Amino acid sequence: MHHITLIAGARPNFMKIAPLIHAAQKAQKEGIDINYRLVHTGQHYDRQMSETFFEELNIPQPNVNLGCGGGTQAEQTAAIMVAFEKDLMEHPTDLVLVVGDVTSTMACSIVAKKQCTKVAHVEAGIRSWDLTMPEEINRMVTDSLSDYFFTTSEVANANLRRFGAEEKCLFFVGNVMIDTLLTNRSRFVKPSVSGELHLQSQQYIVLTMHRPANVDEAEKLKRLMNEIVTNVHDLPIVFPIHPRTAKIFKDLGIEAPNLHIVEPMGYLEFNYLVERAKAVITDSGGITEETTVMGVPCITLRDNTERPETCTIGTNELIGTNPDNIKPALDKLFAGQWKNGGIPPLWDGHAAERIVEILAKL
Fold first, then answer.
1. Is the pTM of this model over 0.70?
2. For residue 325, which of 214, 244, 245, 251 has the smallest C-alpha distance?
3. Contact status, residue 349 vs residue 183, Cβ threshold 8 Å
4. What letter does residue 187 receive in the DSSP assignment?
5. Sign of torsion, CA 67 70 71 77?
6. Cys-Cys with 229: which of 60, 121, 122, 256 at CB 3.0–4.6 Å?
7. By three-state DSSP, how is residue 281 classified?
8. Radius of gyration (C-alpha) of the chain in whole angstroms
9. What is the pLDDT of residues 335-361, one digit of tens each?
10. Which residues are catalytic?
11. What is residue 218's predicted lDDT score, i.e. its pLDDT?
12. What is the CATH code for 189-334?
């Protein structure tokens, strides 16, 4: 029997865990001895992370919620480590499987290794080479401790080889985020905002922004918003706003008739909007993968990306965080000159099945 403990801490983690649970359930039905336990560290907890979220992704409630939300990076890391150590002692396992690059990913990897438990990292080897990003530190620490690496691209494999990962522990399997996207694409839900604003397909822009570099400096945020609002040819901009950004935003008094600030959305509603948008403007990593697969132009307000294949192969373009770069990018979009893009190898909806198949053999 293979006992696997799956770790998830934040919303993007559950989107990566969901296909793994579905693949494990399928393997169990086929008589493969594989047992999993789902640990939610509680790192992110919001209204949309409660019942509806698990229903939306069609995954069972976690076996335990460690309730480690809030606090600084160090406080959160410490809280997760203390709580998970206790949990792991009470529920020993053959393997701890972590996904992505949130605090929980790093914290639980450290605990597992100190208890001499093997660690597998899904989405291993991705790098932005920007150590001001907490996620980059989480990725580096996790990869330095992992026993098995499941990767989304050859670039990630090359990064891991450079750091001395053994070939026999590297598995290029594809992208589990895309498994979730393709599984749910036919289930996308039209959000109420779509009707309220009379949004027409290809006739609006979706905006997301949450990175400190973009939202923490009031003046910079003001300039970014101003450039976006004035260069979208009056198309409606739908901006589901992160609670952190909302606080800062409120005091800036940024208003425009075509700018619509809306509450954060569920996965199925948000991607319904993305699939039909003229373009997405974002500073997220995961969204650039989804736009690439759905063929939607994506303008990324970052100086670096840990997902270079969304730019080299996909529909994404990195334009930096300088507000002056927004107009030329939007001009190119409206002139119909945006690249078509393609889909990276193995981003086909079967990554989780490959992972479970490999885990069953390990």
1. yes
2. 214
3. yes
4. G
5. positive
6. 256
7. strand
8. 20
9. 999 999 999 999 999 999 999 999 999
10. 210
11. 85
12. 3.40.50.2000
Q: What is the pLDDT of residues 252-272, one digit of tens each?
A: 888 899 999 999 898 999 999
The one-letter code for the residue type at 55 is E
Q: Are strands 237-240 and 259-262 parallel, antiparallel or unpaired?
A: parallel
Distances (CA, A) of 244 to 34, 85, 151: 40, 30, 31
d(CA 241, CA 264): 6
Query: Strand runs (DSSP E) across the chain, as ranges?
Result: 2-8, 34-40, 64-65, 95-99, 118-122, 148-151, 170-172, 205-207, 237-240, 259-262, 279-282, 298-300, 316-318
Task: State the residue for tokens 């319904």.
Answer: 272
- From 279, 276, 291, select the one nearest 343 (Cα to Cα): 291
Q: What pLDDT score does 248 carry? A: 80
| CATH 3.40.50.2000 residue window(s) in the chain | 2-175+347-361, 189-334
Residue 262 DSSP SS3: strand
DSSP string of 35-47?
A: EEEEEE--SS--G
Of 270, 279, 277, give the one whose Cα is nearest residue 184.
270
Q: How far is CA 65 from CA 68, 298, 310, in A?
A: 8, 35, 33
Tokens of 50: 């409660």
2-175+347-361 — its CATH code?
3.40.50.2000
Residue-wise over 27-53: b if at least 16 C-beta within 10 A, else e? beeeeeebebebbbbbbbbeebbeeeb
Residue 100: strand, helix, or coil: coil
Task: Report the alpha-carbon distance of residue 76 to residue 273 in Å, rounded.
Answer: 33
Token pair, residue 299, equals: 């303008």
User: Cβ of 132: how many Cβ atoms within 10 Å?
Assistant: 10
Give residue-wise pLDDT tens across range 166-223.
999 999 999 999 999 999 999 999 999 999 999 999 999 999 998 888 888 888 999 9
Structure confidence at residue 1 (pLDDT) = 64
H/E run at residue 73: helix 73-90
